[in-house]
Design a protein that fits this description.
Length: 477
Amino acid sequence: MLSYLNDHSLFSRTFEKSPIGMALVLSNGRIVKANPALCTMIGYTESEFIDLRLSSKVHPEDSGAALISWHQLIQGEMDGYQIQLRYLHKSGSIVWGLLNVTAERNLHEGYGDDLFIVQIVDITEQKKKEEEFKKIEELHKLISEHSQDVILRLTPDGMISYCSPAIRNQLGYEPDELIGKYAYEYWHPEDLNGGWLRKSNTDPSDSRIHVYRIRHKSGHYIWQEAHSKKIRNAAGEIQHVISMGRDITERIQSEELIRRSEKLSLVGELAAGIAHEIRNPLTSLRGFMQLYMKEDLNGSKKLRNDVMLSEIDRINEIVSELLVLAKPSNEVSALRDMVQTLNQVTRLFEGQANLYNVQIIKEFDANLPFIQCQISINQVFINIVKNAIESMPNGGELIVQAKQMKNHLYIRIQDTGYGIPQEEMAKIGNPFFTTKETGTGLGLMVSMRIIQNHKGTMRIDSEVGKGTMVEIILPID
Ligand code: ADP
Ligand code: MG
């Protein structure tokens, strides 16, 4: 027996009591001694192990790698190695082991020259955890890389440490551009007061849903709904914050549209009622005014009277615009040629266009179908063309187009005028919103209302200094 394996040696006691699986192996690979920890680990008794090759218990897929190292060791190319291997437990299950082999050379004790000390640490649990973690990590990657929502990881003070690729479609940035930046630098200044992120250390709630505007790379803002959650470590400290942001611009816009159309119908009803009431006294006032002017034979009060008459006419103009609101309900609808209508409207403005040096260009597709509509549709084109010409006091081009796409008629009225600033865009179409000295602020509201009654849509696109495009889409049926 090997001297250092006698029952009283320190090595022998360590060998027996070690929680790490241990074996002594000869250069032919056969086991001379196995400790209890190894027996438990692989599921064999020590007597079953003796004279067995430990390599026979290695998982076939790992035996190649195991043999290469073993051969290098017994040929003296190295004095030890460490390798992770799977072993087959007697029960058939797989045991992951961290194998450590060291050589004791030239012992000359009758068992051959060299002896090898094998130590195996059971790392099955660790491996399982690693694998689970890897799976979770892959899943997370899959979700965040493919989600339509933008997923962000932020430090507790709001610095972006991860950003998912959805940011490209949603906000036009590359994920890398945002790493290291503070999220709230991209928020609309009016939406900053929430400040949940910046005071996240003191705020007691750990998750919340927040709606705010966020800046697109090209400068405009989109509406985002973000679900944010603070992630805490075992000590309760925030490690980071995870946030998922969804583009809800369209939702907000359609909500706005509904609100506006509700407001419109209310204002419309009210306005139409008032207009009827005003019109009658106004007609008699105007009649008497004209009589009164005829009686002023030497014209001493002419200036005053002219002002009064033009003021009455202005009131009349407002009232007629308001009255259009009441008409659609009882007006008959008929099939009408929109090309003819547009020609009539542009002819109406030829004089004014000449005066302002505005060139009218018409582009109508051939054979456009007629549209089932009320005569009030004329008013829409009049209002829009009027606005367009008024936006070009120093001349320009007015382009009127009509074309069919599937079962819709598209009418576009485009000018090269001063355009509408973005902050005013939201107010366009609100009753009485005007930027003109003598404007009524009713033209577009009335037009939208009429188009709505025809189940059509109206859209305004504008850029300051470049011009405005109004697009009307009407159903053909
Ligand atoms: P009004 O013309 O009486 O002001 P509207 O309802 O027709 O009322 O238009 C409201 C406002 O919308 C205008 O005062 C103007 O500021 C803006 N607007 C409408 N159309 C145009 C356009 N083509 N170009 C520039 N601004 C426009
Ligand atoms: Mg107008």
